[in-house]
Every structure is written in structure tokens, then in C-alpha cells.
Amino acid sequence: MMSITSRLLITASLVLTVCLGIVGWVLEESHREAVEKAMKDRVQNQLYSVIAAIDLGVNGRMFMPQNLPELRFSKPGSGLYGNILSHDGSQHWQSNSALGMEIPYLYDLEQGDIEYKVVRAANGEKLLTISMGLSWKVNGKAEAFTFSVAENMFDYYQRLNDYRKNLWTWLFGVGVVFLLIQAVIIRWSLSSLRKVSDDLQAIEQGNKDQLEGLYPKEISGLTANLNAFIRSEREHISRYRNSLSDLAHSLKTPLAILQNEIESNATRVVLKSTLSDQVERMGQLVDYQLQKAASSGRTILAAPISMDTLTQRIVNSIKKVYVDKNIKTFIEVSPDAVFNGDKGDILEILGNVIDNAFKWANDYVHIEICFEKDSGYKKNNLNVLTILVEDDGPGFADVNVREVLLRGVRADEQVQGHGIGLAVVRDLVQLYNGKLELGRARFGGARVKLTMFI
Amino acid sequence: MRILIVEDEEHLRGQLCQRFRAEGYVVDSAGDGEEGYYFGKEYPIDLAIVDIGLPKRLGTEVIKQWRTEAIKYPVLILTARGRWQEKVEGLEAGADDYLTKPFHMEELVARTKALLRRSAGWSNSVIKCEDVELDLTSQKVTVMDKGVEVTAFEYKVLEYLMLNAGKVISKAELTEHIYEQDFERDSNVIEVFVGRLRKKLDPLNKKNPIETLRGRGYIFNLLRDN
Questions:
Q1: Are the Cβ atoms of B84 and A314 closer than 8 angstroms?
Q2: Which of A283, A324, A348 sits opposite B118 (nearest CB)?
Q3: Do B137 and B187 lie in a common domain?
């Protein structure tokens, strides 16, 4: 794929070429017009000077003095030529400078008409001619003449060429300078991206932990996301590693017990009971560690999940299971409440907590979910999601509360009991920077309050 | 009562079949989703126990398909994955209860009984019609607060009729739900069982608890108490 630098440079040079081309063409055209007009004015003045130089001879006959005020008319081959033709094309007068030259002048112009024409003389000289029709009274009879002046166009072309050369040299210079500046700007702007890529390489090689330093605001979002992604991946890996070692270690105790039992002289009945206890214990350990490993933690790239629908889904499913108990539910969920994270995690959290409530409730389960946007918590712009679930069952005995929380700390120290639900919830909530609080509900039963910062 | 067990792990399937037969159920079993779906659709099943992770067709898909085809009997799912995501998906697909592996057989049997009772509209595990009481958990029959001895087959017949109290049950339906094999079916035997039950439930021959409707079948005639 073409690099960003070459894309920008190619487009910039195309645009520059077109723009500078148009500017050059406009400037050249207007200069040419100005030079042409100046030349036309000059030949016109020369024409008037020729007309003004006419002396009147006998009977009003035209008479041209030997030397005209403009010396170039007298010098052969000077490039400025004068001429007077009769209406029939016969030559009446021509300047000394035109000796030996054949110039195709106009000769049939009406009185007062002025015409410019570019012609080529017989010797190849390119000339601009101006011709003017005049009538002159000779012997009381009007005669028509055409007065013409021709000037060599060499000088005209020379000036145009000089100007053109100059103009395009400058425009080219300006273009090159623009492109250089552009290249420098691109390099400078893209240096942050290069830095990201260098940093990523350093992270890959293990020299760095995350993207460091300040980035322009256009890519700071990207770098923040990348950093969060790297962090969450790292957390995942360490969680997997921990779960695996926790599992392996926690299985050692029941295995040791079984080992001892095999080596002892225990009776079949004792063996069977030990085996069943330890199998049960190992099952719970595997369950707990599996759930812990499957939890994914905060994923900033996940689409927000509406808590309203999710809660309804779970409650409907759980109601099916406890249909016999005929439990009444009161559910209040802020309509804007969303969960930015893994769907499996929030299902696990809600499923466990609500299932517990249904399990212990006599008649009522109350669920309340609040959502507070960008509360400014630790300046991280995190939303606060609060989940409160209460039932009217027996509630937690004080000892129970402590045990439930302890169980989360060291799963392998777990004593015989039912369920590991709340321990799993506690671990999951911690992944979302949250906390689990247990207490007594307003109408007597258990009260579980989860606060998560997401 | 006829139960369908769909489980791909052969050893576990064998244990389940054995246990439920010992409980007095008629058991059909399938080892993959395709077969399970077919049995569930074609046999007169009262309840299905379905594993989610099945070969050929997932358990949730099988249940969904049954439900779209208006098959209404209760379904209990077994899942090795204990995550709520799977439980909710299973329940939403149309299952009525779930159990996570590993599980205790007693719990599975208890849940199965509760589901069967619930689907017949009973809210308690002791079902009572006037002065006849049937304890589904202990499989004991009481008439006028006195225990009555019944044989395993008599119990099966009574349980089916009483759970469906007030409904006409044809002889064919009754045999399908209490006999495993076709060749065991003999309508005369059913008549004998019903006759013995009548005597045991109504020793004074006053109430006619099980009425015979000629050409149509039987109906348990005592009124439901709960």
C-alpha cells in the first residue's frame, strides 16, 4: 500500500502543478497583451509622425522630406519602415530604410480606417504593420492613399521570451519550495505515528510497558485505546496464569488427602465417604477457577449493553426455574443504564446475585439499578453502575457474611458449603474496579449491593 | 411417565437411564442432537433431559426446534459450562430448568419430579384428590390418612392418572407412558391394574375414583385439592 507521505506528496505536487500552471498562463497572457498594446501604440505614433512630416508641395501635392525625425526610417534595414500607396496599389513613397524590401502592405483602405496586420516580408522578416486610409486633395481633386508603417517584431518576441523564461523559472522555484515545506510538515506530523510504531515495537520486544509521552490530540484517542487494550490483554494473561496456578495448587490438598487415604488401612465405607467429600471439593474448585478464568474484565472496545433488557432477560429466565415459589419482583432500572464490558461477565454477576435472591426469598425480590454518567470519579470520566438486589428471606447471618467474603480470597480454603456464586461475583466486580457489599435488606432478608466504575 | 434423555457421553447416559428406570420411569435415550430431536418429536414423551453440548445439533437448537413445533412438555438442560450466559440462553430457548455438571443424581431426580408435577398443574409434591393422597417424592399412597400398599406398576398407573386428574386418558396413552417396549403392552393387564387400584382407593365401593369410559379410556374422577 502506498505510504501516507507519498500520497500527500503526490497530491500536493499535482495540485501545485495545476495551480502554478494556471497562474503562469494568466500572467503570460496578460504580459503578452501589454507588450502587444505597447508595440501597437508605438507603430501608431510612428504612423502619425510620418503623416505629420508631409510637406505640401505645388498644387497641394504631397512631398516627403529627405530626413524624417525618426532616424530609423532613414537607415536601411533598421527594422522600421514607412510607405504610402495609392488606391490602385502604386507606390507613392517609401522610407529609405525599406530599400530593396518587399512588404505586402494594404492599399485599399477607406478614409479614416486603421488596420493592424502581422505580415512576413520577402526576406523573411516578421513585421507588424499599421495602415491608415487618407484622402488628399491634389489639384482640387481628392485622391485616396494608404499610409503604412511596419516594425520588425524581433524585439517583441525577444521580450516575450525573456519574460516567459523568467516567469517559469520563478514559478518552478516556488513550487519546489512549497513541496519541500510540505514534505517537512508531513514528516513532522507523521513523526507521532512513527513514534507509536517504534513504541509498539519496543513493547513487543519487552523494552516498554506501554505507549509513553504526549501525543497530538488527533491520535491520543488511538494511543489511549491501544494502551487500555495492552493493559487488559496483560491482565487477562496474568489472570489465566494465576487461575491455572491457583487451580493446580488448590487441587493438591484433596489429592494429598486421597493419597493418604489409599495408603491407610481405612475401611471401604470410610474410603467411599472421603472420596465423595474430596470429589465434591475438587468439583467446586474447578468450577470456581473456571468461572474466574472465563471472566474477561473491562473491555473498552465493547459496545455498551443495555441493563434494562438484560435484567429483564435474566429475571424471566430465573423466574422459570423458581416458578413454584411464585415470587413477586420489583425491578427499577434507569433507562440509560449501560454496561461497558463483557456481556458474559455482567450476565454472570446478575445471574448469580438474582438467582441467590430467588433461592432465599419468601415472597419478594427487589432489584434496583442506577447509573451515573461521568461522575468525575478519580478524574477518569468513569460511569458508576450500582446494582442493588434485596430479598425477604432469612438474610446473611453475621458469620456467613464474613465467610462469603473470605471464600473469595482463598478459594482453596473453602469449607463445605453451598455455592460459590458470591465469591465469583466479588472477583468479577473487582475486575471492574468495583466493590461488593453485603447487608440486611429493608424488609429483612439479604441485601447485595454492587458498585462498579466502568 | 416417559422420559427422554439426550446425552452424548455414553457412561453418564447409562447411569442416567439406569437411575430413572429404577425410579419407575419409562426411559428413551439418544446420543446426539439429531436423534434426540427425532425421539422428542415422535415419542409420547412427558419430560426431556437434554445436554447442551451435543454432537450434530446443539441442545439449545433442539429445544428451540421442539418449541417452534408446539412440543410443550418440560425440558431440563444439563450443562458443563456453568456460566450464566449458557444458562440464560438455554432457558430462553425453551428449557424449564437447568443443572450444572457435575451434579448429584438425587437433585436431578427431584428436579425432574418437580417439573413433571408442575407441568401437570400441581404446585406441591404431595398431590391430593379428595381423600386420596399421593406423595411423589416417597411414592407413597394414602387413602383417608391410612397408608395403602401398591405395587410398582399400580403406582405408575395411579401416578399418571392422578397427575392428569380430570382428563380422559386412553388405554393406548396409558400403556405408552408406563411401558418401555411394545411387546409388553397388553390392555388386559392394564384393566387388571385399574381394577385392583379401584378396590384399594375405594374399599367401600362408593366413589368410583377411576371411571371407565367405554371405548375412550379412563378418567380420574376425584376433585383436585391443590
A1: yes
A2: A324
A3: yes
Q: Cβ distance A287 to A420 under 8 Å?
A: yes
pLDDT of residue A415: 34
A-side interface with B, Cβ within 8 Å?
279, 283, 287, 290-291, 294, 313-314, 316-318, 320-321, 323-324, 343-344, 347-348, 350-352, 355
Residues B48 and B101 in one domain: yes
Query: Cβ of B105 under 8 Å from any chain A Cβ?
Result: no
B48 found inside a domain: yes
Domains contained in chain B, number: 2
Of A287, A317, A350, the CB nearest to B91: A317
Q: What confidence tens digit (pLDDT) does each residue in A150-179 have?
A: 999 998 999 999 999 999 999 999 999 999
Q: Which of B119, B142, B174 represents a domain boundary (last residue)?
A: B119
A86-94 long-range contacts, Cβ below 8 Å, gap at least 24? Answer: A86/A143, A86/A144, A86/A145, A87/A143, A87/A144, A87/A145, A87/A146, A92/A62, A92/A145, A93/A62, A93/A64
Q: Which residue from A287, A324, A348 is facing B84, i.e. has the nearest CB? A: A348
**B76 and B142 in a common domain:** no
Tell me: cis bond preceding A65? Omega within 30 of 0 counts.
no
Same domain, B84 and B25: yes
Boundary of a domain, candidates B100, B119, B138: B119
Instruction: State the average pLDDT over residues B160-174.
Output: 86
Does B130 lie in the same domain as B65? Answer: no
Interface test with B, best of A290, A315, A347 (most B CBs within 10 A): A347
Residue A390's beta-bridge partner residues? A366, A447
Same domain as B189, residue B89: no
Q: Do A324 and B85 touch (CB under 8 A)?
A: no
Looking at chain A, which residue has its C-alpha nearest residue B91?
Answer: A317
The reply to whether B226 touches chain A by the CB within 8 Å rule is no
pTM exceeding the 0.80 threshold for the entire prediction: no
Question: What dihedral do alpha carbons A415, A421, A426, A427 form, nearest 10°?
Answer: 90
Structure-block grid coordinates of residue A55: 510637406
Q: Which residue of chain A is at minimal alpha-carbon distance from B77?
A: A321
Kindly report, residue by residue over A217-250, the tens digit of the pLDDT.
Answer: 888 888 888 888 888 888 778 877 877 887 887 7
**A342, closest residue in chain B (CA to CA):** B85
Q: Are residues B102 and B191 in the same domain?
A: no
Answer yes or no: do B44 and B95 share one domain.
Answer: yes
Look at residue B135 and tell me if it is in a domain: yes
Q: Fill in the DSSP letter of residue A54.
A: P
Residue B21, in any domain of the structure: yes
Domain containing B56 equals 2-119
ipTM: 0.76
